[in-house]
Design brief:
The complex is a heterodimer of chains A (374) and B (405). Chain A has 374 residues and is an alpha/beta fold. Chain A has twelve helices and twelve strands. Chain B has twelve helices and twelve strands. Chain B is 40% helix and 13% strand.
């Protein structure tokens, strides 16, 4: 197979053609939402339509949409921008944009994860502060394991104690139905490029009636909640991606068949020598994290890359550092599995033939490794 | 020759993207969609390679090293990072004073105001009637506690160019970091971080015929400037700015920088010629005033006050020209501009100010059309205007109290 096989959709996704076309149209005009002339009103029209597309996708009509440069910015805005919050609680499996965001003036409390990669609710309950000035941040779907977290349940616990809850929904949007009303969360962070929208655009959703302080100060864009000229073309692409995501959800659910085929194939190749993580819990349909005992994922990745198969060992954002996965440790994975994790994250364009091609390539690699070990 | 209306004369608000930039961005989005931080496959490596080429293109335009360039979401974010980042890093060294200027962009002013709330001392230097900083006042304002001087290169509302080289020299002599907001200057006029002793520079993509949603911050390595980041997360951009670097946007900014390096001289010549023609015609209307210094200015920005006319009705009358009254960012409100106020422009003239922004794609036909339109509308509006009547009768308009809308 000469065509590249892209299995790293949780890192970033190809931009959809329709989104690209919408962006190209916007790029033909000097649109700035702050201008008073007709290019300005057109810019506002595009941006407001995108706000609606996002609200429709997430059933977020009771939420303000604040466009940002991405979810990292959105999360940082929340963690720094809620007045009166003294404690922030999050789990050990959160994405780096949450896990590393530790404002100095806040008390950070880490919550454990179960060995299935689910936020440990009893640990959360134990660690909740006595007062109500706290924020819990919990992701809807884990970027490495794909495990779906019990957000509605966590929201209930948080609200019973009159706290606030932020949800990083980045890896769930476009993959499963995400309904903010149902999840009953107060804030959400979302990123466009994880579901076939452009890189460099994201949004922060804030439940109406709640207030936040801006992180980036300047002019009065986004009702004073986020300064800086809006990325109108990017937002137009985001809007198209939202509409397409909504239409494609049934199709996306079918990707789980490919993941099952993959999982079975790997089991046939590796037998008991491998482990699939978060196997017993609900997951987004496209993600499989597995590890082979006493192997190094880097050599497997190189082997795959040489065969035009592109996957990863975990999150892409650690910017060059190749560490043992924080997530695997949080899941209390056996030491022999810590070095050998591979994450496969599929998209709508992946096919059964690609899965089979990967399994062939991987089988050759695996058997060679076993010979070398003997 | 047919002209497409409205004529875009708002280049300070945003610029049309150069077709060459769109072209390369679309190609990148179609073919090289990888996450530049993916370490494990060619898609990631290719995206990273493209981002690094872009970084180099940006660096070249200001005589910097590519390791000194950090991608951000735009100049507003860059200004926030530079000002708050330096202030918060150096506050432990008893450096708690920042000097900036009353006419800076809102994002600089508001970043400083925020620090003021946190206990920093901020000096907002006044400007002279021509909009320029008084260098002696700057020298006098620097103390042992001063961490940073932040002065913009080209003013977004009135186009005056501050004396960067002189300011840089003063800062270096006093061992104070010098930050400059170059959103309006990067790619428009020659900038050299070495010759001008600039320690931090904010850069915007969409002001130089590149895309929105991307900018950069130059941070000097020698002597090293340290920064406390505004965002935490994946640690991208060597910890200075977390978040996935948007590959195609970075490529767009890089290409726009490369074009600017090659064509700045030619752009500047053309804009100067058209700007002179327009300025001359507006001056011929009498009782019109160019705001800001007439020499030290970027010619692509002409901010004129028209005595006897209300700014908003002027904009309505010349709606075939896409222009702003005052800065685009504040133009949703009808308060007179704080920049013109800082220059000592009276409320009457501040209310009638219009900013004409010219750029790479402005044509002579468009300027001729604009001149005809402005001339006929100004005469018409003045004929209907009680203000114009009063001016003719010699009444001082400053004695009138303007009601806020």
């Amino acid at each position: 197979m000469i065509q590249p096989v892209y299995f790293d959709h949780n890192a970033t996704t190809p931009l959809s053609n329709e989104a690209l076309m919408a962006m190209n149209q916007v790029y033909q005009f000097p649109y700035n939402t702050s201008s008073v002339h007709q290019f300005g009103s057109k810019a506002n029209q595009i941006v407001n339509e995108a706000r609606k597309s996002l609200q429709n996708l997430l059933n977020a009509h009771n939420y303000e949409v604040i466009f940002t440069s991405g979810s990292t910015e959105a999360t940082n805005t929340i963690f720094n921008g809620i007045e009166g919050i003294s404690d922030i609680l999050f789990s050990s499996i959160e994405h780096a944009s949450v896990f590393n965001c530790r404002p100095k003036n806040k008390n950070i409390i880490e919550i454990a994860s179960t060995n299935q990669g689910i936020i440990d609710i009893s640990d959360l309950q134990e660690k909740l502060p006595k007062h109500s000035n706290f924020l819990v941040s919990a992701m809807l779907a884990n970027n490495e394991t794909g495990a779906i977290q019990p957000i509605a349940e966590i929201s209930k616990i948080v609200h019973q104690k009159s706290g606030l809850i932020h949800c990083d929904i980045v890896q769930a949007v476009g993959k499963i139905n995400v309904d903010l009303e149902e999840l009953n969360i107060d804030f959400a962070s979302v990123s466009a490029h994880k579901f076939n929208g452009p890189q460099g655009v994201g949004a922060l959703l804030v439940r109406k009636g709640l207030d936040i302080e801006p992180l980036i100060l300047g002019s009065k864009q986004e009702k004073g909640k986020r300064a800086g000229s809006l990325n109108v073309a990017g937002i137009a692409g985001f809007s198209v991606a939202c509409k397409q995501a909504q239409e494609n959800l049934p199709e996306f659910a079918k990707i789980s068949h490919l993941v099952n085929r993959l999982q079975q194939g790997l089991k046939t190749i590796c037998g008991d020598n491998s482990q699939v993580f978060s196997q017993e819990v609900a997951k987004i349909p496209n993600t499989l994290l597995f590890s082979v005992a006493n192997q190094n994922s880097q050599t497997a990745l190189i082997h795959c890359d040489l065969h035009n198969i592109y996957l990863s060992a975990g999150a892409a954002c650690s910017s060059g550092s190749i560490n043992q996965s924080r997530i695997l440790k949080a899941l209390s994975a056996e030491p022999k599995f810590l070095q050998g994790a591979l994450r496969i994250s599929l998209g709508l364009s992946n096919t059964e033939a690609e899965i089979d091609y990967f399994l062939n390539v991987y089988q050759d690699y695996y058997q060679l490794q076993q010979k070398l070990c003997q | 020759m047919s002209i497409k209306l409205p004529i875009y004369l708002d280049y300070q608000s945003t610029t049309p993207i150069d077709p060459r930039v769109i072209d390369i961005m679309l190609k990148t989005m179609q073919n090289d969609f990888g996450n530049p931080h993916s370490r494990s496959h060619s898609y990631g490596w290719r995206a990273e390679e493209l981002v690094e080429i872009a970084r180099n293109q940006v660096a070249k335009l200001i005589n910097a090293n590519e390791k000194e360039i950090f991608f951000t979401s735009g100049a507003t974010e860059s200004n926030n990072i530079a000002i708050k980042g330096v202030a918060n890093f150096y506050k432990s060294n008893q450096k708690n004073h920042i000097i900036t200027v009353a006419t800076e962009h809102k994002c600089v002013i508001n970043s400083c105001r925020d620090l003021e709330q946190e206990g920093f001392n901020i000096t907002f230097l006044p400007v002279q009637k021509n909009g320029l900083v008084d260098l002696n006042q700057l020298k006098q304002a620097i103390t042992k506690q001063t961490a940073l001087v932040s002065v913009m290169a080209i003013n977004n509302e009135i186009g005056v160019i501050q004396p960067l080289a002189e300011i840089g020299k003063i800062c270096r002599e006093n061992q104070v970091f010098f930050h400059t907001d170059c959103a309006q200057a990067f790619g428009k006029i020659p900038l050299d971080v070495e010759a001008m002793n600039i320690d931090l520079m904010s850069i915007s993509g969409h002001k130089i015929y590149g895309p929105k949603g991307i900018g950069a911050l130059f941070v000097r390595r020698k002597p090293r400037v340290r920064i406390k980041p505004l965002f935490s997360g994946g640690g991208q951009e060597r910890g200075i700015r977390s978040g996935t670097v948007p590959t195609a946007l970075a490529v767009g900014l890089g290409k726009a920088s490369e074009i600017a390096l090659q064509e700045m001289h030619q752009d500047l010549q053309k804009v100067t010629k058209l700007s002179q023609k327009l300025a001359l015609a507006i001056s011929d209307l009498t009782h019109t005033y160019l705001n800001g210094d007439s020499q030290n200015r970027y010619p692509g920005n002409l901010n004129f006050s028209f005595a006897g006319i209300e700014g908003e009705s002027m904009i309505m009358a010349i709606k075939d020209l896409a222009v702003s009254s005052g800065s685009a960012c504040t133009s949703a409100s009808l308060e007179p501009s704080y920049v013109l106020y800082a220059l000592g422009v009276g409320a009457d003239l501040a209310h009638t100010s219009i900013r004409f922004g010219l750029g790479r794609f402005t044509t002579e036909e468009e300027i001729d059309f604009a001149i005809n339109l402005i001339t006929s509308k100004v005469q018409k509006l003045r004929n209907m205007s009680p203000l114009w009547d009063m001016i003719q009768k010699g009444i001082d308009l400053n004695s009138i109290k303007w009601q806020s809308h």
